[in-house]
């Protein structure tokens, strides 16, 4: 059997090796006529097909169904492989509007390396060879990591596609695009992680004895110190003259990593902390007063700031007062805290909305909506509509994780939700548990994530 496998396994990888040959050439110099031609039906098919694969099939089949060992993981994943190859060919076979060489096209070719890697690892694991070996354990982990990266890879590539379609982020606009799209995506990612902590706990996060705010503070400090806000703090200003934007960007960088350090200190030993929420609120206030070159841009930034302030405020209320209400008569204290309250969905949703608003507030995008006669209200409503849809989709993925495959029919749906316990003990009495609820400081999380199986059945 192994000999036969060695013969046909290279054939399964042949489509991935032929893809560069099928690609048509992009040129750096294209006439204005070709740049302004209408989009043909083949390119629309390419966009729709790849959005289906990378937005739905891979996140559901490649990530969620793979984690829960769902029986549809393999067939749907194979379907995704086939469709994305077809989408790649369509993207290089269209007529109509022409596009210069872009990061979207270059990334499309690079994406087939993780696809081929996961496909090859999946075939290897299905053959059940090298059972019990260290190499097989590494293959299982690598297969899962690649599958879990699909939503991020798909998000990035779809953004690149939208920017290429609009002709954005060239020349002097690149720096602004990087700032808006990286930071906006970070806010969305923050909201997604907050949703995961809220619904399924932190089973895959090491050191679960730490509070969520401890992790929040570390993310705030390291992210702002090592990436965009570190750039703002130390290198955002160029030249001898300091504009008001230079000063604001630099001071925001200092705010985030200095406030993050305070958040780490105040949330140690499983203490709840309001510092991350306050940082988000102050950032929202600063952005709401961030004067822009046009009226539309100023109003969009103001809306973004207000949304961010709201996210910080509701997070502060959740941390400070979310669990202080006394339990109803006959209600067990610890069971009560396993229930997600509707109010707790507000912080992650508002972070998603704020992220979309910030991503949509570049000069080129706002110049476009001015050209088509759209006002800031309509534009904001469109962004909030997308925020509702994205947050809905995130919750659908989380639901599929908790209710399908090996997690189907679980009799303990509350596992993984917040559980406050007195003095860190799971066996505290109701009286002590109620005291800890009022203290609102010490808690522990359980998990719904079983230890990963070493083999894929």
Which radius of gyration do the C-alpha atoms yield? 25 Å
Major beta-sheet overview: 2 strands, antiparallel
The mean pLDDT is 75
Could you tell me the strand content as a percent range? Answer: under 5%
Gap between N and C termini, in Å?
A: 18 Å
How much helicity do the residues have? 55-70%
Shape call: globular
Q: Helical segment tally?
A: 20
Task: Please tally the β strands and state the result.
Answer: 2
Biggest sheet strand line-up = 1-2
SSE succession:
HHHHHHHHHHHHHHHHHHHEHE
Structural class: mainly alpha
Low-confidence stretches: 1-12, 203-207, 228-237, 323-337, 411-457
What number of domains?
Answer: 2
Please summarize what this structure is.
Residues 34-128 form the DUF2427 domain. By secondary structure, this protein is mainly α.
Can you walk through the features of this model?
Residues 1-23 form the signal peptide. This is Protein YTP1-like C-terminal domain-containing protein. The chain is an all-alpha fold and 457 residues long. The model is unreliable at 1-12, 203-207, 228-237, 323-337 and 411-457 (pLDDT under 50). It folds into two domains: 1-167; 171-457, no CATH class. The chain has helices at residues 2-12, 14-22, 32-35, 41-67, 73-91, 103-110, 112-126, 134-148, 150-166, 174-200, 212-226, 228-234, 244-266, 275-288, 295-321, 333-336, 346-359, 363-371, 376-403, 430-439, and strands at 418-419, 444-445. The radius of gyration is 25 Å and the shape is globular. Helix 10 (174-200) crosses helix 19, helix 11 packs antiparallel against helix 13 (244-266) and helix 15 packs antiparallel against helix 17 (346-359). The protein contains 20 helices and two strands. The relative contact order is 0.10. A two-stranded antiparallel sheet has the order 1-2.
